[in-house]
Each structure stands twice: as C-alpha cells, then as structure tokens.
Design the sequence.
C-alpha cells in the first residue's frame, strides 16, 4: 500500500518528524510505500514540517525569553521564511521561574533577520511561548519605542510594561510589501477570562494570585497601543495566542490563519493524499478538541475529500473519535500506563504499526 504519514508531535516524547520516520521505517519493513508529511497546527515543532521540503536552514543568535542570548533557527526557500516563536522565547529555553522577567524581543529579531535576507512572505508559528508580554518585546525589537512619564526609555521586560506612558512607532520597521501570516490554532482574545493571561498564564508560571497583576499589564499595554494603531484587534480570535503576540502582530498588519490548514497547503499534503491508499495521522493526546482545528482534524478532512481512509494513532485517546476517522488506535490502551508509554513511545509506536500492517 501507498501510505501517507502526517502526524503532529507526540508532545513530550517524539516530534512530528521523528514520529513519521518511525512509522515509515516500520511500514517499509512490512513492504509498504511510505510518504512522510509531518504536520503541525502552528504549535512548537512547526519547523519540523519543512525539513524535507527544500528549505534552507538558517542559524542565528537572538535574545531569549530571559534576556540572554540563545541559538535559534528558521527555514527559508526563495523569498519565503518559516519562523517559530518558540525558537526565541520558548518554554524550553527557561532557566528561571519568574514570568515577569521575560520578553518576546527575540521574536522581533527573528523577523528582522528574515526580512534582511529578502523574505517577502513570512509564516510565524506561535506555539510554545514562555512570554505574557502582549508582543511588547517584539514590538521594541522591530523599532518601536516606549517612554515613561519622564521621557526615559522603558526596558523590554514584561515587568516594566506598567511604566509605559507613550508608545512611538516612528522607527517601527514597516511590513509594506511583506505577506506575513500567523499560524495558530488558538482563538482566544487578548483580555478577560478567556484571554492570554487567564487561560495560558498558569502554563508559563503565573500563579493564581498573580493573574490580575499580569492582566493589568496587558490592559495597560492595550490602552497605550490604541493611541498608535488604527485598528484594535484585542477581541479578534487568536489575539491571545503566545501571550498576546497574536494581538500585536495583527495590530501591525499580519494575517491570522488556522495553523493546520496553512501548513497542509505549504507542504502540499493534498497532492500526496489524493494518490494514497491510506493516511495515518496522530498526536500525543486526542479528545474531542482534536476536531477543533488540530492537525489530525485537518488531515482527516483532506483524506475525506478524496475518499481515502484515515487512521488516527495517538499516544492516548480519551474520547470516542470513531465518527471522524476510519480507525483509531491508542498507544496507551487499557493494559499500558501512560507514563510507561511516554518513556517508551518509539518502541510502542513501532510495535503498533507492525501489528496493524505486518
């Protein structure tokens, strides 16, 4: 059989490319033709989808989430650049636990580097960020300025947002002629009970008693931003992505798209699927939210358009998704502990593929 492999990452264990490669090796041993198309919905690991798509890997150093220099990469082909927020301010880069002492400055440096290399189309995945600064640091890296009440410059760190008396965009890098798109599956607004801080802050170290403090910082930044930007995107779906980075980027004229749909288009998933006998997708943990724009749902919709069967093979499946996939398989079944599966994902994934297709 000709089988297309389009898994997302098995979070905490295998990235999407590793998962696809394990499946491919096992299928080839059983005599099948495997085509790997690692997928993402815009979360961390997005860059893995482009390793085998003819893109050049660009290495650089940027400002990390805590202000120190960190190595980063992005991918570029002709005038298209693929960037990932987590490369500059990802949770995996943290060495301390204070969420007030963080910045998204490095994301702006990534964008500038790509622009200076001639990028006219930029795709930015927003997953995995460690920041809650509403994109303030990124704004500053792109040439924005912030002054306090005495006219002195304000630092780029999250904790100093409340010192801002005025934001200036005289030197802000213009994105005219650049098609910049945010890839994300997050639809939260910037502020409120469903916003960036209330929903995602705790994942980044914001304690329950600090929620109002960080929310007030974003409220203050939002108030100052309304003086300089023509449109207010604070209620636009996705504004709360990456600690408010989505909001700031939309203020600057970027477009927000469902990450899974966008990535599928860019890696030409449809071309591979329409000529396949079967498609396999998967992720670390699947439930009904999987069908709300997550990568497996995008893959399933693509397969359905061409009448191709699609299997879901995930680390854990906690709700019945049989109505959406031809077959569903969970590595952590009734006889296996989830922690055991996470420690031995490669072994269990290869064993399951061999059992199904051997």
Sequence:
């Amino acid at each position: 059989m000709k089988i297309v492999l389009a898994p997302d990452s098995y979070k905490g264990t295998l990235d999407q490319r590793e998962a696809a490669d394990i499946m491919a090796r096992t299928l080839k041993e059983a005599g099948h033709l495997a085509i790997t198309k690692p997928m993402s919905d815009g979360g961390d690991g997005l860059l893995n989808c482009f390793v085998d798509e003819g893109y050049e890997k660009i290495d650089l150093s940027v400002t990390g989430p805590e202000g120190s220099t960190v190595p980063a990469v992005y991918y570029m082909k002709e005038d298209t650049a693929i960037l990932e927020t987590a490369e500059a301010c990802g949770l995996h880069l943290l060495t301390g636990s204070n969420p007030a002492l963080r910045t998204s400055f490095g994301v702006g440096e990534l964008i500038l580097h790509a622009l200076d290399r001639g990028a006219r189309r930029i795709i930015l995945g927003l997953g995995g960020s460690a920041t809650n600064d509403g994109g303030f640091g990124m704004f500053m890296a792109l040439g924005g300025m912030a002054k306090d009440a005495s006219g002195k410059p304000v630092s780029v760190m999250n904790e100093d947002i409340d010192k801002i008396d005025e934001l200036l965009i005289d030197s802000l890098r213009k994105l005219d002629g650049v098609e910049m798109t945010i890839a994300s599956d997050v639809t939260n607004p910037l502020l409120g009970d469903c916003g960036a801080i209330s929903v995602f802050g705790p994942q980044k170290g914001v304690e329950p008693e600090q929620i109002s403090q960080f929310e007030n910082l974003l409220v203050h930044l939002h108030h100052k931003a309304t003086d300089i930007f023509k449109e207010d995107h604070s209620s636009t779906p996705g504004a709360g992505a990456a600690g408010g980075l989505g909001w700031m980027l939309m203020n600057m004229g970027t477009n927000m798209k469902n990450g899974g749909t966008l990535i599928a288009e860019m890696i030409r998933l449809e071309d591979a699927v329409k000529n396949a006998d079967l498609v396999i997708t998967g992720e670390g943990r699947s439930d009904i939210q999987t069908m709300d724009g997550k990568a497996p749902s995008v893959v399933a919709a693509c397969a359905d358009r061409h009448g191709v069967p699609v299997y879901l093979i995930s680390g854990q499946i906690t709700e019945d998704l049989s109505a959406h996939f031809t077959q569903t398989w969970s590595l952590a079944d009734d006889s296996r502990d989830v922690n055991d599966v996470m420690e031995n994902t490669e072994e269990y994934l290869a064993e399951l593929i061999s059992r199904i297709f051997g």
Summary: The chain has a mean pLDDT of 95. The CA atoms of residues 47 and 84 lie 7 Å apart. The chain has two domains: 2-39+268-357, 46-260. The longest helix spans residues 211-225.
